[in-house]
Specification:
By secondary structure, the protein is mainly alpha-helical. Among the domains are: 175 residues, 3-Layer(aba) Sandwich (Rossmann fold); 51 residues; 86 residues, no CATH class; 94 residues; 77 residues, no CATH class; 57 residues, Winged helix-like DNA-binding domain superfamily/Winged helix DNA-binding domain (Arc Repressor Mutant, subunit A), CATH 1.10.10. Helix content is 64%, strand content 4%. The protein has 47 helices and seven strands. The strands form two sheets. Strands 2-3-4-1-5 form a five-stranded parallel β-sheet, with helices on both faces. A two-stranded antiparallel ribbon has the order 6-7. It is globular, with a radius of gyration of 33 Å. GO terms for molecular function: DNA binding.
């Protein structure tokens, strides 16, 4: 690795790169990829002065001939202004914003304060940014260069990270540089990263010789050792030394040493130049007029900048900027506090109150010592503007500073609490927790103390410490008063949600106690029942009273989820509760209707956290329908979203039911070992443990391991969680009968009979008939098996219909009716083999062999070898969706859709969208001759 050789700071041409072969190769590859119409992202990480900015310039030079270039640099004064960096990056392209889909256009306009409206979801803003950049790149590929990303405002950084994870075939490149510091850039996790190291010793010596000529060997040796390959340190330390200076002072970190070096240079300049530099260190980088108005107000001459330019402290590119960010930091940190306050006061005076009120408010706050309610009010108003744009980290920062300036203790506590809440929404739970602890002693109003407990519970949920949440909220609801009834029921709803997840792991209270408390807090007589009200009453009744009284309440909640207009994703995603309610009633069509509606709603709102779990429930629908390829596609998209929003995907855990149905024994058992072996207890999620045990039961039944299946099933049966507690009943019956434990089978059948009769759905009645057939004598079993097939044939649950045929065929074979058995077993085998349920298919094949028929093993053609995303794109296109509609639905771009469709056409051997439906589903496509 060789050195780069910097030119003088005011050189008109950028310095040439010497060496850096690995870095240049990575950058050339990125530029080439973008130039070919694909996309890529790369993060250059390294210490200050290591050469990241010079590498960014190299990429810009490499891209200049063929690509458009958009660039932005992070600066410390901007870090508290939400979406400021994103606005600067996109400003040249905002004239194309009217081409965005409506929700995306509104989201971006809201983020930039261009249109009124509620705060937009940050991921919808991310999708709008992605779509806008892809639209720009459709004219000519685009390279986005972001320097010093550690100083971007948090909102902008998160949006760019989201974009980087969703780029695919858009002709857009994203190259960021960031300091290798432990905080501030976690949002970039998951993006490709290149760590820029220091120069090797021979290259460092070459650079030193190039910039300083011949030095004494001791001096050169010490400079190379102290700089540790950092090019900026080599250049600046060599420039600082006199030719006869034999040794340097003791070792310091490179950043601190460079700041001290730059500060010495600045302090050698005239006082007027130093004052101008201090103003420049905090003036807005995108509005040079503010800088010159402030210097004029302070009586500083513009010519005072000349010496700073000639000495390489400032450069003209074309506006006045610091040559290196460390110089800006050194100037500001090295100034006297009184001088800094004077500059902030001056900037507040010259910034237009109407055009830039938030920056003005922050400068006022920075100019203030002690307390000042007027300035605190300015900051509070700025926080509301930030919140209205979706800038929650900025809101939190404004409110925290407002609290520090607030003279009244109670109002200070209120502002600290509001700041804590904003920081949690922004994803800073540790800061939120600290601020909440400071706020609580001063919160006197009951509703504020109740809100503090809700926030405390939300922080626990953020840290996946769900077990304590119910007791926190239950105690708050019962001890803080008087509270509005809606507030209390809202807290109880959150408590019940958490307790339904934690179940036996709940601490400080019990699930049953939470349910009884909820039932003891009914809705006001004339109040309109919202969806949370209906779900609270239904599940509280199911848990505290019993199944039968809960049935009409569950039906009412499902109906509201299907039709009511007041859908709001808050707390546990509605799809989870909808799944529990519909599965408890074996309501397959209700489940599909609910999750499809929520899928549309979550996508329209950009609510990706909720959408991720909605997709997992859509995967269940597809799995039960026997469309395993579609289920895999939903799981894949859920995993992509988890990565995009910075969550742990835990893909195998959430996909365990599909793994079990596919007969992937080793993978299923690995998930079970993980969850039951400690994951569930650590996360406080007994609900996940139940789901995993239900899946393991299916696997054991498919393998004919009936004793093992019964042991798993009984654990779920005993807990009787809404949803899985009902779904497990037919499995307990089957496993109990085949394992010889008719007592267990009889108890499960009794519960199943009561519930299925109350439910009355075809799925419920089909499972009841099938289970009764397993327990019946020969005179009645055949009629019951026939009823089961008939009922299940009217449902969407192909997996259970196939199992009914299998059990019916097995019963016929054991009766010696081999010909009749073959018919049923062949149906079962064909269904299982087609859907990819390999273990159940093998069980059916072995039974067929026992009838004397030689069944061939079939290899499932999994969606023509399409990837999960190709499967999704192809399915939507086959249904008539346009590229733009598919892109909006899948949170990708239209060019990426086109890229996937081209690959689909090649794999399927077709030439047009009109052929997709016939090829994918073996049915004629509309208008296809």
């Amino acid at each position: 690795m060789a050195a780069y050789m910097p030119g003088r700071p005011d050189a008109s041409e950028p310095a040439p790169l010497l060496g850096r072969e690995d870095e240049r190769l990575a950058l050339d590859r990125l530029v080439e990829t973008v130039g070919e119409g694909l996309s890529g992202a790369l993060v250059l990480v390294g210490e200050a002065g290591i050469g990241k900015t010079r590498l960014l310039e190299y990429a810009a030079d490499a891209a200049a001939a063929e690509l458009q270039i958009a660039r932005v640099s992070g600066v410390e004064p901007e870090t508290r202004l939400a979406f400021a960096a994103l606005h600067r990056l996109l400003l040249p392209f905002l004239d194309r914003a009217d081409r965005l889909p409506g929700p995306q256009r509104d989201a971006l306009g809201s983020a930039f304060g261009l249109v009124p409206g509620p705060p937009a979801d940050r991921f919808l803003i991310g999708l709008a940014t992605l779509t806008l950049l892809a639209d720009v790149a459709s004219v000519r590929p685009l390279m986005c260069l972001v320097d010093d990303a550690q100083w971007l405002d948090r909102e902008s950084l998160e949006v760019l990270a989201f974009v980087g994870r969703r780029l695919h075939a858009d002709g857009v490149g994203l190259l960021l540089t960031v300091r290798d510091e432990p905080t501030g850039t976690s949002a970039l996790g998951g993006l490709p990263t290149f760590h820029v190291a220091g120069l090797a010793e021979p290259d460092a010596r070459r650079l030193l010789t190039a910039v300083a000529g011949r030095l004494g060997p001791q001096v050169a040796e010490r400079i190379v050792a102290e700089a540790r390959g950092n090019p900026l340190a080599l250049v600046e330390l060599a420039d600082e030394l006199s030719g006869d200076q034999p040794l340097l002072p003791g070792p310091l970190p490179v950043g601190r040493r460079m700041e001290a070096h730059f500060l010495r240079q600045v302090r050698a300049m005239p006082a007027e130049t130093q004052s101008l530099l201090l103003v420049a260190s905090v003036a807005p980088p995108d509005d040079p007029a503010v800088l010159w108005r402030a210097t004029a107000l302070l009586g500083l001459s513009p010519e005072a900048a000349d010496i700073a330019v000639s000495e390489g402290i400032l450069s003209l590119r074309p506006d006045l900027v610091f040559r290196h960010p460390l110089i800006r930091s050194a100037v500001y940190a090295g100034a006297r506090p009184a001088d800094r306050r004077l500059v902030h006061k001056t900037l507040a005076a010259v910034i237009d109150r109407d055009r830039d009120p938030d920056r003005r408010a922050w400068h006022l706050a920075s100019a203030t010592v002690g307390i000042d309610e007027d300035v605190a009010m300015e900051l509070e108003r700025a926080s509301e503007r930030a919140r209205s744009h979706g800038g929650y980290s900025a809101q939190g920062a404004f409110l925290l500073r407002a609290a520090e300036l607030t003279p009244d203790p109670e109002r200070r506590a209120d502002r600290l609490f509001a700041s804590a809440r904003a920081h949690l929404v922004a994803g800073d739970p540790l800061v939120a927790q600290s601020l909440l602890e400071r706020a609580v002693p001063g919160l006197n109003a009951p509703e504020m103390r109740a809100g503090a407990q809700q926030l405390r519970a939300a922080i626990e949920m953020f840290f996946a410490r769900v077990t304590a949440v119910p007791s926190i909220l239950l105690e708050a609801a019962s001890t803080i008063g008087p509270l509005d009834g809606r507030t209390v029921r809202g807290m109880l709803f959150q408590a019940l949600e958490a307790a339904m997840v934690a179940r036996r792991y709940t601490t400080g209270t019990t699930l049953a106690e939470v349910a009884r408390t909820a039932l003891g807090t009914p809705l006001a007589p004339r109040a309109r029942a919202t969806i949370p009200d209906l779900l609270l009453d239904a599940f509280a009744t199911r848990i505290a009273v019993g199944y039968l009284p809960a049935v009409p309440l569950l039906r009412a909640a499902i109906a509201a989820l299907r039709t009511d207009s007041d859908l709001v994703e808050a707390g546990m995603p509605l799809a989870v509760l909808g799944w529990m309610a519909t599965a408890d009633l074996w309501d397959d069509r209700g489940l599909l209707a609910v999750v499809e509606r929520l899928d549309t709603f979550d996508r329209d709102q950009g609510a990706l956290h909720a959408l991720r779990l909605t997709l997992l429930n859509l995967a269940s629908c597809e799995l039960w329908a026997g469309r395993f390829g579609n289920a895999e596609a939903h799981h894949a998209e859920a995993t992509e979203i988890a990565v995009a929003v910075g969550l742990s995907a835990d893909k195998p855990i959430y996909q365990v039911e599909l793994l079990a149905w596919q007969g992937r024994e080793a993978e299923t058992r690995a998930v079970v070992d993980t969850v039951i072996g400690g994951w569930a207890e650590q996360r406080g999620s007994a609900s996940t443990a139940n789901h995993v045990l239900l899946s393991l039961t299916v696997l054991e039944l498919s393998l004919g391991r009936y004793h093992e299946a019964l042991a798993c099933a009984l654990r779920v049966y005993d807990d009787d969680e809404p949803g899985v507690g009902s779904l497990i009943l037919p499995d307990v019956v089957e496993a109990g009968v085949r394992a010889g434990d008719r007592a267990a089978a009889s108890a499960a059948l009794a519960r199943l009979s009561e519930r299925a009769t109350a439910s009355g759905t075809s799925w419920a009645l089909g499972m009841l008939a099938r289970s009764r057939a397993l327990m019946a004598d020969d005179d009645h079993a055949e009629v019951l098996y026939g009823e089961s097939v008939e009922h299940l044939g009217r449902t969407l649950v192909a997996t259970e219909l196939a199992r009914a045929h299998l059990l019916y065929g097995e019963w016929l074979r054991r009766r010696g009716r081999r010909s009749d058995a073959r018919d049923r077993l062949r149906i079962a085998y064909d269904m299982f083999a087609a859907m990819g349920a390999s273990a159940f298919a093998e069980r059916a094949r072995v039974e067929l062999l026992a009838t004397g028929e030689r069944a061939r093993k079939r290899t499932e053609q999994t969606d023509h070898h399409l990837t999960p995303q190709e499967t999704q794109v192809a399915g939507l296109a086959a249904g008539g969706a346009t590229n733009a509609e598919i892109a909006t639905r899948l949170f990708i771009t239209a060019s990426t859709v086109e890229y996937h469709l081209n690959k689909v056409f090649r794999k399927l051997g077709i030439t047009s969208r009109r052929q997709l439906a016939r090829t994918l589903h073996d049915e004629p496509a509309p208008g296809d001759a």
